[in-house]
Amino acid sequence: MTVSIAWYLALAALLFALGACALRRSEGRAVELLVHASILALVAGSRLLDDLTGQRLALLVMVIAATWFSVFRQREPPPSSEEDEGSS
Q1: With CB atoms counted within 10 Å of each terminal CB, which end of the chain scores lower, N or C?
Q2: CA 18 to chain centre
Q3: Radius of gyration in angstroms for the set of CA atoms belonging to the chain, rounded to a whole number
Q4: How many CA atoms lie within 13 Å of 24's alpha carbon, on the beta-carbon side?
């Protein structure tokens, strides 16, 4: 059984809608969900058109997103524990 490209695009639209709803609620993983949905749509569209440009662009988006998320997470202050505050 093969899955048509329309199912991949529908899944990408669903993921994007969920990410948009999560973004309105300011949940932390919303941006990642939006990025993954757009990557899925790029790869599905690339497969539909029999062109590698969309897959190359998806790879570039993944590299940029991974770099941005790693830098963003390094800048967040570490969570403070109550034990550390009591001992000083």
Answers
A1: N
A2: 12
A3: 18
A4: 5
- Tell me the residue type at 80: S
Cα–Cα distance, 28 to 26 (Å, whole number)? 6
SS3 6: helix
Alpha carbon 50 to chain centroid distance?
Answer: 24
What is d(CA 86, CA 88) in angstroms, rounded to the nearest whole number?
6
Interatomic CA distance for residues 53 and 77, integer angstroms: 38
For the entire predicted model, the pTM comes to 0.73
- Residue indicated by tokens 């993983």: 29
For position 56, what pLDDT does the model report? 93
**Structure tokens of 24?**
């309105």
- The burial of 50, by beta-carbon neighbours within 10 Å (0-12 exposed, 13-18 middle, 19 or more buried), is given as exposed
**Cα diameter, the chain:** 64
Residue ranges of the chain with per-residue pLDDT less than 70 = 74-88
